[in-house]
Amino acid sequence: MQIEIAEFGKMSQSGSSLLNLIQNNDLPILDLLVREAVQNSLDAGITVKEHDSVFVDIGIKDINVEGFSSYLEGVTDQINKRFGSSPQKAIYIEDTHTSGLTGSLDFDHYPNSNIFKLIYGISMAQEMQGAGGSWGLGKTVYFRVGIGMVVYYSRILNESGDFEQRLAVTLVENEKLAESIIPKTSNKFLSGIAWWGERISQNSKGTVPITDDEKIHEILETLEMKPFTEESVGTKIIIPFIDEQKLLIKHETNESENKPWENDVTEYIRIAMQRWYSPRLGNKKYKYGKYLDGHVNGKRLEKEEFLAVFLEFQLMYNAAVYGSQSDRYFVSDIQIRNYFEHTKVNNAGRVAFKKFSRKELDMLAPINGPTPFALVNEKNTAVEGNAPLIAYVRKPGMIVSYELEGEWSKGISPTSEHEYLIAIFVPNSETKLLHPDGNVIDLEGYLRKSEMADHTSWSDIILNNKPVDIVEKIRNQVRRKIKLSFEIKEEVKDKQVMNALARNVGKMLLPPTGFGRRASSRNQAGTRPSVEKLQGSNDNKFKVLSQNYLSNGAIEVHFKMKLEKKVTAFTIEIFVASESGKISALEWEQVDSIGTPFPARITRIAFPETIGSFGRSTAKKSASKVLYAIHIEKKQLSVECLGSVVIECSDPHIQLEILMRPEGSGSNG
């Protein structure tokens, strides 16, 4: 292949500037590589309709140094001298079910093709709907993995409908170093950038990728890579001359943990693919297109092999996307007003979260798995216990960041040392902005625009010449929902213990009154001793007599009720008890409160001996269609009767209260 050395000119880049263009000192180079490479492959699969997944394989191959260097005009001797005396390896990234590096090779007239953007251009943003990148700078990570050399090979269907293979090589190096590989040219300032391919014409210095199948196959053989065959279309990126030890970084954590993946590049890649793409990796429920069919060194990453915390992230992601409620996770809607076309409770998205035990995260013997903090390369920032771990992700399915402190988690209390609070926020990507600006028309576009070039955080931006605080409001809502949910539940748990003690003491020392108002929601069968509580005035009374825990987990509450003649109707309603007072179903489901469906519902109410006393009854339901109260009309006569109500509760931790409210001129209770 013939060499083309980039000439340094006006507004042009040098090799040293490219190597520092997206210098990210927070993430290890292998994490940056996995994030960028997988995202490029997923973007390349957007327009391919025949498959429901994108195949991505990242691994390591040996290099035939002398064989490979013989195809690189002008640098063969330098390559052999530097690398020929010892075994050399390359990292490869392969994808199929993708479009490949398409586009015209006439770059003078078609400078926006995929192949030009990846190999020859810089800062050329990805504009496709649903794509991950928006800056066109991420590919510079390829130049930092090895010596700056990258081999690009692709097989495409060209405009004529025929299969066509393409291969080119790029080298980006620091031109300021004494031992450079790119040959010096007389009277020219070194740019540190070169390409290898075939001449555009006999008199031209420019090159384009080679398309000769036989030569391409020969070059691939020196890199232990096989060409695409039959109907396969895709791309292989090979980065030769890597130093495995320089790619591996030892992370310090708060615990002295064994992290074997930090001793082996292949194992590190296996963890990194789960770390950043768990929402999309092998996830056939992925909503926004093709799921990721991930492989490492040719071996598929099966769900059964996922580390526990990353499998939980995928399941929580699905729960947040689809708004599914379950006993396993809390799922809360995130709503922001004044910025979107509609005011649905989930217009900004949903957050799913849970406190996990060490056992649930496979941290106990015999597995003895690592902590979530070690797996995401973060230090536990809590002085005591464990800091909350919050992730956020948008449409492409790559986790943008893991947050342990700062605006995402400020004010959320650490958990005990034996449990971990883990959460993921998923935006409602298709929510339309009330005031769009250019191509920023929805929440996905806003968040995409707000990301830095390395896609490691969200920050608010200016739209229509006005600062917008959507990200800030999302963070505040996520924080509030998590904090409020767990605060209420911890208060209720503590109060349950105190109430149980009070009841036991009361039975021994006091008359059995004042201890029967609440119906505990613990999920167990059996009965409890009869207890009573006077509620209301001397004329209108409501007494809970007993509670019966049914085998299906429902609670059957038996009560005695007395209503004077002037009462025209009454309502029986259930509430959740909290330290600050009872919480109604309507309050619970408000977006500024818990924001989830009320966790208890009335399934049956009965008055066995009241024929002719009561009239029409009306069920009262919340916005989530939960029956939380029943309104019953009463005839003009005094009533004293027994009754029962059956309540189902979906949350074993909350404590319930049941109240009766009379109406009419006699409703003085």
Give an account of the 3D structure:
22% of the residues lie in helices and 29% in strands. The protein is of the alpha+beta class and 669 residues long. It has three domains: 2-247, Heat Shock Protein 90 (2-Layer Sandwich); 302-477, no CATH class; 511-664, Immunoglobulin-like. Strands 1, 2, 3, 4, 5, 6, 7, 8, 9 and 10 form a ten-stranded mixed sheet that branches. Helix 2 crosses helix 9 (265-277).
Determine the fraction of residues in helical runs and give it as a percent range: 10-25%
Query: What is the CATH architecture assignment of the largest domain?
Result: 2-Layer Sandwich
Low-confidence stretches: 491-537
CATH class of the largest domain: Alpha Beta
Distance between the termini: 94 Å
Mean pLDDT: 84
What is the overall number of helices? Answer: 14
**Shape type:** elongated
Number of domains: 3
Radius of gyration: 32 Å
**Major sheet characteristics:** 10 strands, mixed
Count of extended strands: 30
Annotated CATH topology of the largest domain: Heat Shock Protein 90
Strand percentage:
25-35%
User: Structural class, from helix and strand content?
Assistant: alpha+beta
Give keywords.
669 residues; alpha+beta; Heat Shock Protein 90; Immunoglobulin-like; 3 domains; 10-stranded mixed sheet; 6-stranded antiparallel sheet; 30 strands; elongated
